[in-house]
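Technical note accompanying the year-one report. For the benefit of new consortium partners, we illustrate the data format agreed upon in the data management plan: each record pairs a sequence with a structure-token string. No post-processing was applied to the example shown here.
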Amino acid sequence: MIARVGLVQSPGDGDKAACLLAEKERVRSAAGQGARIVCLKELCQTPYFCREQDPERFDLAEPIPGPTTEAFAELGRELEVVLIVPLFERAAPGVFFNSAAIIDADGSLLGTFRKMHIPQDPGFEEKFYFAPGDLGYRVWKTRYADIGVLICWDQWFPEAARLTALRGAQILFYPTAIGWLPEEKTELGAAQHCAWETVQCGHGVANGCFVAAANRVGTEGSTEFWGQSFVSNCYGEVVARASVENEENLIVDCDLDAVETFRRIWPFYRDRRVDTFGELRERVIPPGAGE
């Protein structure tokens, strides 16, 4: 069975209304190219406002369900596409999450993923805005594939990919906003991008699944988002990669039967020593502990 995936690589588009309108048109374009599952970038309905700490930015948040999910539910139903819609969620007074709504091809809201790992770096002031996700790692049986969703900084944690894949994900989607700071790009830019892509491809190998990362593109403030959205297969091979600087849709056919085949040939799940992994719950394991 083939699931045609569309990753929308796009820039910030000004205010919230402009972002929403632009992203809806990009979904239409991806669907017109045959995509059946369309993933938008992290915080798709706003610019990447986390570059600085500004309390007024909390006004950009909205509930799920809410105006953005309702707009995309209508669009998904019309186009018969599954949508991954990342947005700034207001869960309660003073409680906000970096989230993604998963909408099935009939327009139904299947659920929400809340970003589990929250970074705090220059230009990525996310701990000021977001609480850590509290809904756990989940998989949704959509019309076209069983999908897991993780968000940006979650990309670096193999435990997150593993726990999602163990629940049956055939494709791991990573909506993303990652880029270079000007003082780092010349010396570390290539290495940073290599690490980002390599670790995600490794998740695909270790779990026998496809990985699909949809990144921002363009410059916002001093942050140059590095684009290069990609899809990798069960062997960790990048089967398609978008450009560094262009707004574009990356359309890729994912053979879901290959997931089953790979997991039979490379039986990592069978051979896992689950009885030895208890210490993974520890933050640090002192030298000599357990001896």
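Partners are asked to follow this layout when depositing records. The longest strand covers residues 82-92.
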